[in-house]
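Bug #77: duplicate submission created two jobs. Keeping one. Sequence:
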Amino acid sequence: MDWNSDGQMDIVSGDRNGYFNVFIRDDSLLHAFYQYRLLDSTPLNVGANSQPAVADWDGDGRKDLLLGTETGYINFYHNFGTDSWPMFQTFEQVHANGSAIYLYRVNPVIFDLDGDNRQDLICGANDGCVRFYRNTGTNAMPVLAAEETLRLQDETPIQPIGTYQVGSRCGFGDWNNDGWPDFLMSGYEGMVQLHLGLPFVGVEEGSRHEPALPAQSVVASASRPAVVRVPALVGGQRVVVADAAGRPAAEFGTAPDGRVVWECGGVAPGVYFCRLTGPTRPLARIVVAR
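Kept job's structure:
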C-alpha cells in the first residue's frame, strides 16, 4: 500500500510480538520504521500477533489503522496526523451487531465484498473460519452487521487446507480480471489457496446485497466423479466444463437435485472450470488427477 501518499507502494506489517511496522519505499530501497510510534513516542503495541488493515475508516480523507490482536479484539486507531504521514494515539474496539468483535488471533481485512460501494470487514481467525461483517452504515460511519461465516457453494465453511485447518489469513481482489471478487487464503501449514468468486444469480448488476461466495474447488479423477452444485437452469441455459484454454470437455442440459456429475472420462489430468453458459463466473474449479 502507499503509506505516505507519494505514488510508490510501501509495506506495513504486524509481528509476533504485537508491534506495528512500516517500510517506506523510495527509488533505491526500503526505509524501515520498526515499532511504529504513537504521538506520545511510545511504540504502538497490542501485546502479541498484531495484524494491520489500513483504510479511511471514518471518511475524513485520511488513512486509519485497524489492528487485529492476539486477545481477539480489533483496535481502531483514528489518524490524528495527515494522509501522507498517519499518526495515532488512542483506539476503540471495532463492534458488530452491538458488541465488540472477538475472534482469537483475529486478522482483519477491509474490502467491499458485497459490491454496494461500502467497505466491509472480513476476518480470519485462529479457528480457521472466515467471518464477513457487512457494512450497513456508510463509509464515513461504518455500522457492521452480525457475523456471517464465508462458505463454499455447498455450504461448507471455508477453511485452510491441510491437516491443521486453523490460523486463517485472507485477502481479496480480482485475480482473473473478470469483475468479480476472488479470495486468497492461507493457514497454519503455510499453503495458499485461491477461490474464484461467483456471480450473483438472479440479481441485477449494481444491486447486489448478498456476499460473494467463492467458487467450489473439486478434486476428481476417472474413478471419482466431480460433483458440482449449480443454480436452477433457466431460459435454455446449459452447464459447460472447459479446460484452462476454454476448450469444452463436457456439457449438461439438466441438473437433477441442483447438481451435475461429471465422470471425467477420457480427459487429461489438469484444471477445468465449470460454468453456466453466458457471461458468468466459474461455478467450480475442478482438478482432475490421474
